[in-house]
Automatic annotation (TrEMBL):
PANTHER family: CILIA- AND FLAGELLA-ASSOCIATED PROTEIN 47
GO cellular component, one term: cilium
GO biological process: sperm axoneme assembly
Superkingdom, taxonomy of origin: Eukaryota
InterPro entries noted in UniProt: Ig_CFAP47
Protein known as: CFA47 protein
CFAP47-like immunoglobulin-like domain segment(s): 77-217
Gene this protein is translated from: Cfap47_2
Amino acid sequence: GIRLAPKEKLEIPVLFMPTEMKFYKAVVVIHVMRENGENWPYVVTAKSNTHLNRNVTVAENGKTQGILWIYPINGTSEAPQQKSVVIRCQARQRLEQRVELLLIGILPDATAGPEAGNSAVFDKDESSNAPEVTDGSPATLEFLYELQYQSDEIRSQLESLVGMQLVEKEWDTESRIVTLIFNVVFAPSKPMRNEATVTIQCTAGGLWKFPLVFIATEPEVDDVINIEAVGLNKESIVGFKLTSQTR
């Protein structure tokens, strides 16, 4: 019953309030008819375009009574913002740290397939180096993870200094909590403080984001240079060598 003038715009609000960590699908259908009730002259026949026929409603005389616009909507449930995990290392040193990330709200019925055995498989995308992990859990779970950066500048500073690999998983059926254990390697070359986000997605539904803060503190002093005075108003000189780290 909404009337639209020529070239008038119509805004259709869509509200998404997920109650569970899973995928949701819906369709927004807009049905447009002439205000005077007349039909469009297009006649639907057996030879008409199949794709076009799905987007029209046909009157008894075969003419087009209404036009349909169909917009599919895919909703992804995202967990609330998690606390930041701080990874601290001294510059010019190498830190290897195990990081545990808790995924809350996994649905057992959503993850268990008809042939679910005694293994939990972690799938991986091109940006992840996730191995296959089995631990006797009652359902087969597949996860994709990726380390994302806030800007290209931060990516250029961190990408070559940080490594992340999934090594283990713990599954609690009662609390519906999956714990992913990652091995994080941080080898900074100079003092810095940058942030990144680990995005984890379950193929059965659900998205979790964990902020990571990488802090590189001041490095140790390389050497102490002592210059002995030879007298007042006279120069004292000491020589030392520096090796360039780049070309």
